[in-house]
Amino acid sequence: MKKIEAIIREEKLETVKKALEEKSYFGMTVSQVSGRGRQKGIPLQWEVGEYRVDLLPKLNIELVVLNEDVSTAVDAIVRNARTGEIGDGKIFVLPVESVVRVRTGDRDKNAI
Ligand SMILES: Nc1ncnc2c1ncn2[C@@H]1O[C@H](COP(=O)(O)OP(=O)(O)OP(=O)(O)O)[C@@H](O)[C@H]1O
Ligand SMILES: [Mg+2]
Questions:
Q1: Mean pLDDT calculated for residue range 21-41
Q2: DSSP the chain
Q3: Global pTM value
Q4: Which residue out of 39, 90, 91, 94 has the highest number of ligand 1 atoms within 8 Å of its CB and is therefore the one to mutate?
């Protein structure tokens, strides 16, 4: 199992969610985060001088999937989160050791 952590633009949540749903990925956790990539935020020009907004608001979508589903899920996110402009986001894939469904005690493959 792997956890996909996708940092995306806030306005892309609905289309990404829909695309994942179409591929039958339903469970997810979404959090508001702030972050920066390699441009270190964005510079703003004010009358008083230059000011840098360092950490920009983004959404972090976390979903745990079977190893064989990683590339399908990642592709769906990439296709639907992309604008082509800088700041489109980033996806991390991490190993997951175990999953337990609290209600039933189901584990791993049966619990995702
Ligand atoms: N190396 C990193 N480690 C952790 N989080 C990151 C990393 N790079 C980017 N992020 C997160 O992803 C968000 C979006 O990053 P962003 O899309 O700007 O990446 P980038 O590498 O600068 O690519 P681009 O050149 O397209 O902007 C950041 O706001 C931050 O939350
Ligand atoms: Mg960037």
A1: 95
A2: -EEEEEEE-GGGHHHHHHHHHHTT----EEEEEEE--TT-SEEEEETTEEEEE-SEEEEEEEEEE-GGGHHHHHHHHHHHH--SSTT-EEEEEEE----B-TTT--BGGGT-
A3: 0.93
A4: 90
